Structures are given as C-alpha cells and as structure tokens.
Amino acid sequence: MPGWKDEQQSHRRFPERSRKTGHSVQGESFQPRNMLGRYALRSAHFEKLNARTRSVNEQGMWLEIHGLVESATGYSATFDLGVVSGVMLIAGSRKALRDVVEEADEEEEDQGESSAESEDQSSESDASSEEVRDTFVSAPERDRPAHAFEKNTFRTPKWFAQWRGKIAGTAESSQATQDTPDNDNGPNTNDQQEPRDSTASESVHNVQAHPDNKAHFEFSSAACREFKATFSCPALEAREVAVQGWKITGKASPATIHWSEYAL
User: Fold this and answer.
1) What residues in the chain have per-residue pLDDT under 70?
2) Which residues fall in a compositionally biased region of kind Low complexity (predicted)?
3) Which residues contact residue 197 at a Cβ distance below 8 angstroms, ignoring those fewer than 6 apart?
4) CB atoms within 10 A of CB 21
5) Distance (Å) of CA 88 to CA 120, 137, 220, 259
6) Domain regions of the chain by residue span
7) pLDDT of residue 222
8) N or C end: fewer C-beta atoms under 10 angstroms in the chain?
C-alpha cells in the first residue's frame, strides 16, 4: 500500500503555466512525482575547477531528487559536482525553503537531545515520554502543510534550494573565477554513486551551512526531463554558476545521506 507521501504527490495535477500568457499549456500538467529521479549534470565552470583540483569524477556530475521531506513542504536531494558534493533541500519559494531548512535544523537538534536523554536513566524518563507524545503529529495534521507546499510551489516553475556538503581539492580551488562560458554538450549518462566519502581526498573538509549555499532550478517542461540551474558556493568563490541537468532515470532511490550528517 502506498504511503501518505506517495498519495500526497499523486493526488492532484497542476497545469503548467505559460511564461508569456499565464495560461495553461494544453496537454501538459505538472505532477510533483515528475521531479523525482537522477539527473546528469554539466557545468563548464565546475569541469574546469575539477580538472584544476584533480577532483574529476569518472562517472560524471549528478543530482538525485529522492522525495518529500517529512512535512511534505519540500524535497530532499543529494548531489556530486566533483569538487563539492552533499545534500540539498528544495522548495517552491524562498519562504518555503526557509521553513524546510528550519525544520531540518530542528530535527537535527531534536536528535541530539534524544541521544542525550537516552543516556539518562533517572526519573526524567517519564518527562521525556511526555515530550514524545506532545511532538506526535497525526496524519491529517501532516496533510495540511502538504497543501501549502502545493499552493506555493506550482505557481511558478522556479525551485529554490539550500545545500550542505564537503569540498574536495586544494587551496587553488578558492581562486576559481566565474567567467567560464557554458558548455552545451550533453552530459555523461553513466550511473552515479552516492556523494564521495570524506576519506577519498586528503584535503577534503566540511563546508559550513553558509546562508549563501544556494541553488536555483527551472525545468524546461512539466515532464521535468531537463533543467537549467545556478549553484553558489562561497567557499569556492562561486556565485550563481550555470549548471544544466538531464534526467537519466525517473526512479528515485532512498537517500543514504541526510542533512544532519553534515552538521557544523
């Protein structure tokens, strides 16, 4: 039986609006499920940077959108751009994205508190149980924010994202410029792996959750087969770098790396 998130993604269809007229495009409708899957990426800027820092990924650069976050107000994704890889939260507006990030940060704090409480064998266990009951959310209550997600997201084809991850390479990578021309060639469509382990490079380090660790997506059609995006990484002095994506599979796998794993 499909879960409540699957039902939420498929129970409505949203007409794609023309940018010029504002009317629906005949024969096309946007379904949230269309976004899911793995995309091969191409970026002249990151290809040049990867070659310079010897962070070349033989299997190419990629993004995978896995599914809805717990509140159904946004999506979770993982990505690998060679010199930088990690996790991403995606929403249909800047405000919705702030809410999704705050939710993920709160869950991270709750996990830390739960770990501390599990070590306490005192009489506070009863109080902890009460806190768990207070934070339980029923299925109807979970559905309400999902409706807000639909409303905010599908008024516009634009999607906004914030990411956390790791940078691999040398200090030379921080000197990269942003004036590299785009490359229109198609991507490498080989199957990808999950973001690389930090042990894969001697000079890998954590990236802080900088408020400008942002990305922006715009799909070319309701089918979500390709998109144009920008990606910003202040640690690499890369701001709104052009990235293109082509879908290579519409089947999304479960995420194996999560937001909390890149904690500060």
Assistant:
1) 1-29, 56-57, 110-157, 169-209, 264
2) 177-192
3) none
4) 8
5) 34, 25, 21, 8
6) 4-8+38-118+137-262
7) 84
8) N
Handedness of CA 182, 195, 51, 203 (dihedral sign): positive
Q: Note the pLDDT of residue 157.
A: 64
- Please say whether the beta carbons of 154 and 224 come within 8 A: no
Residue type at position 29: S
Residue type, 33: R
Residue-level pLDDT at 113: 54
Closest CA to 255 of 64, 9, 84, 112: 64
Beta strands in the chain (DSSP E): 14-17, 24-30, 37-42, 61-68, 75-80, 84-91, 158-167, 205-206, 214-219, 226-233, 238-249
E strands of 73-185, at which residues? 75-80, 84-91, 158-167
Q: In residues, how long is the chain? A: 264
- For 107, 120, 130, the CA distances from 126, given in Å and listed in that order, are 21, 11, 6
Element (H, E) at 105: helix 94-118
